[in-house]
Amino acid sequence: MTQSGSPISAADVAKVARLARLDIDDAQVEHFTEQLGKVMGHFGDIDALDLSAVEPMTQPYPLVNVMREDVELPTLDTDEVLAAAPAAEERRFRVPPIIGLDG
Amino acid sequence: MSDSTLSSIVATEDQLLPGGWEMIVGLEVHVELATRTKLFSGSPNRFGDEPNVNIDPVTLGLPGALPVLNKQAVELAMRIGLALNCRIQKCIFHRKNYFYPDQPKAYQISQYDLPLNADGFLALPSGTVVGIERAHLEEDTGKSTHVGGSTGRIHGSDYSLMDFNRAGVPLVEIVSRPDIRTSEQAKEYVAELRAILEAIGASDAKMEEGSMRCDANVSVHKIGTPFGTRCEIKNVNSIRALGRAIDYEARRQIDVLDSGGTIRQETRHWDDAEGRTHTLRTKEDADDYRYFPEPDLVTLDPSAEWIESVRQSLPPLPAARRAMLQELTGYDPQSEAVIVAVERGQHEYVKAIAEAGGDPVKALIYVTQAFAEAGAQPAVPPADIAALTILERDNKLSATQAKTVLAEIVANGGGDAVAIAAAKGFEAMDTTAVEAMVDEAIAADPDAWAKYCAGEEKAAGAIVGRVMKASKGKADGKIVSAIMQSRRGL
Amino acid sequence: MTTVPSTASGIASAVSSGSVSARSVVDAHLERIATRDGDIHAFNLVTADEARAHADAIDADIAAGRPVGPLAGVPIALKDNLCTHGIDTTCSSKILEGWKPPYDATVVSRLRAAGAISVGKTNLDEFAMGSSTENSAFGPTKNPLDLSRVPGGSSGGSAAAVAAGFAPVSLGSDTGGSIRQPAALCGVVGVKPTYGMVSRYGLVAYASSLDQIGPFATTVSDAALITEVIAGHDPMDSTSIPQPAPSLVGAVTQGVAGMRIGRVTDLPGGAEPEVMERLNAAFDALAAAGATIVDITLPSLSYALTAYYLIAPAEASSNLARFDGVRYGLRVNAADTNAMYGATRAAGFGDEVKRRIMLGTYALSAGYYDAYYGKALKVRRIIAQDFDAAYKNVDAIVIPTSPLVAFKAGDKVDDPMAMYLCDIYTIPTNLAGHPAMSVPFGTGAHNLPVGMQVLAPALGEVAMFRVGGALEAAGGAQ
Fold it and tell me: What is the mean pLDDT of each run of 10 residues along chain C (478 residues)?
């Protein structure tokens, strides 16, 4: 919680926009902060619940040990795939210089 | 968490670095598994193909693609876990979210707080036991080539090209506890791990080919003080480079601390040509990976029966193989011949020669000397080698002669040692004949003989030389020396 | 001129018996599309040539006496988040505009094998995020019953296509109500099967643990028929239940005599009074048909909205990270890859998608995971436990599908929270993974259709179709 009591601050919004690689300008940050704040204000309802003895539920239908045999399946056609690429060269996907990223 | 829960191992006096510094090293090793297909899809797991041919919707992270776990990858991962004395447990997969062009989904499917294998250990041949924190399954990334720029690295490149053949290949990440105290131990750990991985058929584990990748976490401190800040070292491409990189980094950190500075927690890149590490990125810049359980995969809970069948299928591990050779030959398991034979997988071959009636010690020496490239099953029938070892053991051939016969047997893929020796005119030289030749040599060079009798061992050379010349090399050097010693009467 | 039957099962038997050609069926539907879709915009893409060629092939098979599938000649519309090989699949987003997948979704393959003929890809809220189909990057879809109103969402195009007679059946996807709510607003039948009943392979993922594919139809029988064809284990989807497709068409006319049907006494409020009147009428009809109505409570239901709007955006933020301009889709060029990501995703995603990505990223981020995402997963469990307890005493539950009838276009676009509240009755079943369907049951305000929602436990499709069939038979008359 921020000092104003709103669950999400403009700094938070700017930070998650960066994490999610969404370029948004200051006006948008402000706009989204207001909208997300309203949505998240609603979420306070679950704070009242005592969930200490409850296990999280990540999947609705409990399956276990779903695996496949180590056999080859048909691959995609390279030409078809590269034709859909924004940029390709030498049978590879071409991207601008990779700087400023964790690798 | 206190340092003693991280590691309870304390360096010995001779392991400390000058100035009383203790080096703390943990290793993270990524191993490519030897499966036919990828971890979560049915594209081939193959090295060296044309770019972007081993692709499918899952590999490329296409919209709508879904992962399905490869059973053989789980089997091999379990073999690794058991070989490293881990507990195999019910586990799940997590998503590790980050953006990078070689990561097609912008997340990697890995394992986080519930890995398949946990809490094991690897006993180094020299005796130290290194704890294994975990060995978990995860998928590999694609490969990038950087174009333009002078170094082929990212820095200064004009653009990059992505090949996704490798994306989705199964990896096991093996994380050791920070129990390593010297660069020698680190090298030993990696060598032994490699031998184990090969022995159990989980991976060909070749650092030079990238099927085994090693990152080192290094810090220094003085004993009795808390562990220091550690740095992660990447781009170590051989065992030798690993040793050099660790030693460099420890000294670098000591220099910084000695001059009053502090160590920044960061990832550093090892430059083998320059022999130094430099900053890759600091941890402050690191992405928040936002781990959460992978909703597209279900719980993995190997049954006790499956675990037991994997355990039963494990072959003897390198340590056991070295022990076998020790029992067979009497050689120390740390001796070069034993290590080499096990590393090459030729221990069974040596044993086969012994079982065919051969002399075990000579078998070990012949195999390690003559079969460097031959792999685990040399083409020469063990009985042929066995016969040769007996000839040499019984002094029917000299060591030099035996070596010549061996070379011919190897070149021809087999052969009758006795027949080959005869064909070459190698015969057992009768000991009486040798005695006669020694006496003639003594008579011919009384000065040399007098010096030898007075204790000058070097003077023997002249006598031995005469005997070898007279016998045309057929006399066995050991027998000549024995006769001379008995004549000397000391 | 031969009359084209209006139901999928009617078309299937007419075509296979030879009384009407597949080609004439397809032509008739394409004609309707050409006449009216300009006003409605149910379709992003009409695949007329492909449909005609497919129809001709089926007619040739029938003429030659070769076997054809159970849906031979039946036109179907596919939501544009289902991968169709070589045919544009846009998810109504600029970031996938013009993208042609190199593979088919499993459900698409199964429909083709059954002989169904796709007439086109339908409009949706971008990446299935919305309740009105106003979030589409290619323009909204209108409700065929009143063009000034929304068809609901996110599968608004598929619902409208069936309501307008463009196809007797269509496929949508449902993560928080995206099949059921538009079905209710357009006056058609919509089904969300048990999670894992229908393969998600080839469905562009929004929220992986909530998404399911299901049919729209004008009759409950047709919805059961389509469900039978697309359901059943798929080895390409690890979350696919390892069972074959169940037999469902027979359940539709089985009746509800002897069944216990739950009435939720602590239902969250806010529904229009006419909707609640229809609910009461539904219970009357079911009781008259021989069911016992049992009062039940679902005390945690009101927390479902919060849990959903933390879990779904969190999974979505991860699922949509692959849209980065590297391998397919839109790319906005920049000096380096990192800048390219930011520019591409800013240009390619609409506002609602951006909101949910940011919300989801926040809910998963370091320091906030336990308070938000982690907690939501626990709320999910207590909601599922509420249902489990209720199903000890009842075989099915009936509640409204939507708290309101179709609202005016533009009414809620500027108020995300108001839009989210449209899903309060549909979200709980996605969280629990249970099946649910919406059946038209009379009209409410402004003479607009009201849908009744039938809920059943996991793998309880037979019970669900029995109750759905009974509601349909009762006619919904006021």
Answer: 86 96 98 98 98 98 95 98 98 98 98 98 98 98 98 98 98 98 98 98 98 98 98 98 97 97 94 96 97 97 96 98 98 96 98 97 92 95 98 98 97 91 96 98 97 98 98 79
DSSP assignment of B261-326, as one string?
--PPPEEEEEETTTTEEEEEEEGGG------EE-TTS-BB---HHHHHHHHHHPPPPHHHHHHHHH
At residue A1, the pLDDT reads: 44
Which domains are assigned to chain B? 4-309 (no CATH), 316-423 (no CATH), 431-489 (1.10.10)
DSSP reduced 3-state for B60: helix
For residue B227, give the nearest of B197, B206, B257 by alpha carbon: B257
| Dist CA B161 CA A91 (whole Å) | 9
Residue B245: strand, helix, or coil: helix
To 5 degrees, how large is the angle CA C198–CA C202–CA C203? 70
The rounded Cα B123 to chain-centroid distance in angstroms is 14
Q: Are B446 and B454 in contact (CB under 8 A)?
A: no
Return the amino acid letter for B289.
Answer: Y
Cβ atoms B267, B231 nearer than 8 A: yes
So what's the pLDDT on residue B285?
53
State the pairing for strand pair C169-174/C75-79: parallel
Domain boundaries, chain C: 8-252
Q: Give me the half-sphere count of Cα atoms (radius 13 Å) on the Cβ side of residue B458.
A: 0
**Rounded to whole angstroms, how far apart are CA atoms B235 and B252?**
17
CA dist C37 and C305 (Å) reads 34
CATH 3.90.1300.10, applies to C8-252 = yes
Sort out which chain C residues have CB atoms less than 8 A from B65's CB and list them: 201
| Residue B157: both structure tokens together | 């490149």
Interface probe, candidates A22, A32, A42, chain C, greatest C C-beta count within 10 A: A22
What's the mean pLDDT when you consider all of chain A?
A: 90
Q: ipTM score here? A: 0.96
The yes-or-no verdict on residue B456 having pLDDT over 70 is yes
* C362 in reach of chain A (CB within 8 A): yes
Q: Considering only CB atoms, which chain C residues are within 8 Å of B155? A: none
Query: What is the Cα–Cα distance from B238 to B214, expressed in whole angstroms?
Result: 9
Q: Is the dihedral of CA C76, C78, C82, C84 positive or negative?
A: positive
Collect all residues with Cβ–Cβ distance below 8 Å to B385 and sequence separation of at least 6: B353, B356, B358, B363, B366, B367, B406, B409
User: What's the predicted TM-score (pTM) here?
Assistant: 0.90
Residues in chain C: 478
Exposure string for B381-394, b = 16+ CB within 10 A, e = fewer: bbbbbbbbbbbbee
8 Å CB contact between B484 and B465: no
Task: Tabulate helix, strand, coil % of chain A (nearest 5).
Answer: 40, 10, 55
Which residues of C are the active-site residues? 79, 154, 178
Which among C362, C382, C423 is the top mutation candidate for probing chain A, defined by the most A β-carbons within 10 Å of its own β-carbon?
A: C362
Q: Chain B residue closest to A73 (CA)?
A: B42
Q: What is the pLDDT of residues B195-254, one digit of tens each?
A: 999 999 999 999 988 999 999 999 999 998 999 999 999 999 999 999 999 999 999 999
Q: Quote the tokens at residue B449.
A: 């003989």
* Distance between CA atoms of residues B418 and B415, nearest Å: 9
Residue whose structure tokens are 């960066």: A18
In Å, how far is B19's CA from the nearest CA of chain A?
Answer: 36
Q: Within 13 Å and on the Cβ side, how many CA atoms surround C211? A: 31
Say if B128 is an interface residue toward chain A (CB within 8 Å): no
Residues in chain B: 490
